[in-house]
Amino acid sequence: MIDLFLEVFTIAAVVILILGTFGSNVYNRLSTRITALIFASGPIALIIFVALNTLIRGTRIPPMLRLVEILMIILSGPIVLGLLAARFVRRPLNLFSKAIASLEQNNYRIQLQPTGIREFDEVFKEFNNLTERLQQEEKLRKDLVSDTSHELNTPLAIMIGQLTAVQEGKYKMSKERVDILKEQAERLEGLVQQLATYTRARIPNTDEPENILLKQLCAELIKRFSLELKQKGITPELHIAEDYMLHANSTVVQQILTNLIQNTLRYSEATELAITATPHDLTFSDNGRGVPSEALPYLFERFYRVDKSRSRKTGGLGLGLAIVKELAESQGWEINALAGNPGLTFVLKLATP
Questions:
Q1: Which terminus of the chain, N or C, has less C-beta within 10 A?
Q2: Which of these, 271, 263, 268, lies nearest to 320 by C-alpha position?
Q3: List of residues 6+ apart from 166 with CB closer than 8 A
Q4: Kind plus residue range of the DSSP H or E element containing 274
Q5: What is the pLDDT of residues 297-310, one digit of tens each?
Q6: Rg of the chain's alpha carbons, rounded to an integer?
């Protein structure tokens, strides 16, 4: 009996040693744990074999009981393996299933906690990133309804009010009245154009790229905005070589730079803006008030506006930088926003051949 105890104790110690690897971070992969269980199933079957043989030693047993003994030995290891493996898999899958069901109910606040098994934790991390993204998208969608109705309603209300007053004889249709109506109609047109431009930017551009003398194109844009820049007290600077050639769609480049200049005019409160070109980067920077660091990751989101009250005074739906991103990506470029010192810097990573 002592010999049986020593044999079982030795084999059990081996099993515990194998399963003890689960406590180490090195073995936090599901595949490693399953492999350890496979190795452990052999000693487990051996324990049962030794125990049964010891119990029936010296006794004559029927063939049927011998068959049962053999089946127990054969199946014991896989059964133990299956039960333990199911434990590793079932709980994370149940958590994931409940999270998916919650997501289907538009609950974007659901977050999955780490399980300690690396494969599941990697998937859970991606799921959490997705829910955060969906939560942000839902917020932007709700803001869109509110902001679009506000932006469109304001000029419409002014126009209807003016026309109603004229119709009722309270006002005369003077030049001043016509100017007010025209200004509000142009504001409406601008809002509709923003939406149309963003839609077009999302459609793949099939125009052939061309070689652009970038400094000449930028100089023409600066000249076009010279009056607005002067009124805002902004001095433009171009740090671009005379022969710098950019192979891209000219219309797209103009739209990108136009939107960035308009963004600076509307929101930056800067006194300087600079456009700098290197072989791999195109940088657009100003020395204005900048934006909070927490806002940087969202600047290119559709309908995102750092300061809603300020944006509503200047008009717009928060689509300018979203259009810039769509256009940049259509050329195979990447754009990022960085905090300046002071101001804000946009960096276009140009695709290299």
A1: C
A2: 263
A3: 172, 173, 177
A4: strand 272-277
A5: 888 887 777 765 54
A6: 35
As a whole number of angstroms, the distance between CA 310 and CA 345 comes to 20
Q: At what angle do helices 320-330 and 250-263 cross, to 10 degrees?
A: 150
26 band by pLDDT with thresholds 50, 70 and 90? very low
Residues 301, 53: Cα–Cα separation, whole Å? 71
Could you tell me how far CA 116 lies from the centroid of its own chain? 25
Residues linked to residue 212 through DSSP beta bridges, in sequence order: 246
- CA dist., res. 303 & res. 270, Å (int): 23
- Are 127 and 99 in contact by the 8 Å Cβ rule? The answer is yes
What are 270-300's pLDDT values in tens digits? 999 999 999 899 999 999 988 888 888 888 8
In sequence order, the 6+-apart residues with CB closer than 8 A to the CB of 82 are none
Q: Which pair of tokens denotes residue 340?
A: 């300046």
- Which two three-digit tokens encode residue 273? 């803006």
Res 335: pLDDT: 93
Using an 8 Å Cβ cutoff, are 127 and 96 in contact?
yes
Residues counted in the chain: 353
